[in-house]
């Protein structure tokens, strides 16, 4: 690990980081231990939690929070000010296979990356699975444990398996539940 531009690879405090030299880290990025980053772009002031993997050709914007145990695969773009909860999984292949039609292990030449975009200000709850070829709209909220199978409109709150629209944010601010609140 020679990415000394960002203080990586120096001292025992960084001995549990796996950050490839081709990673582009923005200013004031915070990295937890036990991460795996390679070939990706991470924007200014973003925080990456423990046990997160971000693959090549993935992009994470400025001031994002990527919580622990999350997998951001190739082809995913996460714009600025996005919250990704614990254990979120992104998918980049609608029909994954281990082998080609000839019975040999697949290589990069055997499949095409399918893109996914999470727009500015969106939030994705813990344990969600985000399938490929879709966009989560600006300021949208995806409920914990949801499986997102289609585009989520901006300002929408979705949940379930498959995720369905529950309602829309008013004035782009989510309703805050208190101990005495009830859900719609």
Structure description:
There is one protein chain. The chain has 184 residues and is an all-beta fold. It is built from no helices and 21 strands. The chain has strands at 17-19, 24-25, 30-31, 35-37, 41-42, 47-48, 53-54, 59-60, 65-66, 71-72, 76-78, 83-84, 89-90, 116-118, 123-124, 129-130, 134-136, 141-142, 147-148, 156-160, 163-168. The strands form four sheets. The protein has an eight-stranded mixed sheet, with no helix packed on it. A hairpin with a 2-residue loop joins strand 20 (156-160) and strand 21. The relative contact order is 0.10.
Key terms:
single chain, 184 residues, mainly beta, UDP N-Acetylglucosamine Acyltransferase, domain 1, eight-stranded mixed beta sheet, six-stranded parallel beta sheet, 0% helix, 29% strand, globular, disordered N terminus, disordered C terminus
In angstroms, what separates the terminal alpha carbons? Answer: 50 Å
Identify the CATH homologous superfamily: Hexapeptide repeat proteins
Q: How many domains? A: 1
Form type: globular
What amount of the residues lies in strands? 25-35%
Reported for the largest beta sheet, the result is:
8 strands, mixed
Spell out the helices and strands N to C: EEEEEEEEEEEEEEEEEEEEE
Radius of gyration: 18 Å
Helix content: under 10%
Oligomer: single chain
Q: So, CATH architecture? A: 3 Solenoid
Identify the strand order in the major beta sheet. 3-6-9-12-15-18-20-21
Sum this structure up briefly.
It contains no helices and 21 strands.
């Amino acid at each position: 690990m020679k990415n000394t531009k960002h203080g990586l690879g120096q001292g025992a405090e960084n001995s549990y980081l796996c950050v490839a030299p081709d990673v582009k880290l923005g200013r004031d990025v915070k990295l937890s231990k036990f991460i795996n980053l390679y070939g990706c772009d991470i924007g200014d002031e973003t925080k990456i939690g423990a046990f997160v993997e971000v693959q090549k050709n993935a992009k994470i914007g400025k001031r994002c929070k990527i919580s622990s145990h999350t997998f951001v695969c190739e082809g995913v773009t996460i714009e600025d000010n996005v919250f990704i909860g614990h254990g979120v999984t992104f998918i980049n292949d609608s029909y994954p296979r281990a082998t080609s039609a000839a019975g040999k292990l697949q290589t990069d030449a055997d499949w095409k990356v399918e893109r996914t975009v999470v727009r500015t200000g969106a939030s994705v709850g813990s344990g969600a699975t985000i399938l490929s070829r879709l966009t989560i709209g600006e300021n949208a909220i995806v409920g914990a444990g949801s499986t997102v199978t289609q585009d989520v409109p901006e300002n929408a709150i979705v949940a379930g398996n498959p995720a369905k629209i529950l309602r829309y944010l008013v004035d782009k601010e989510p309703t805050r539940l208190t101990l005495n609140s009830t859900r719609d």
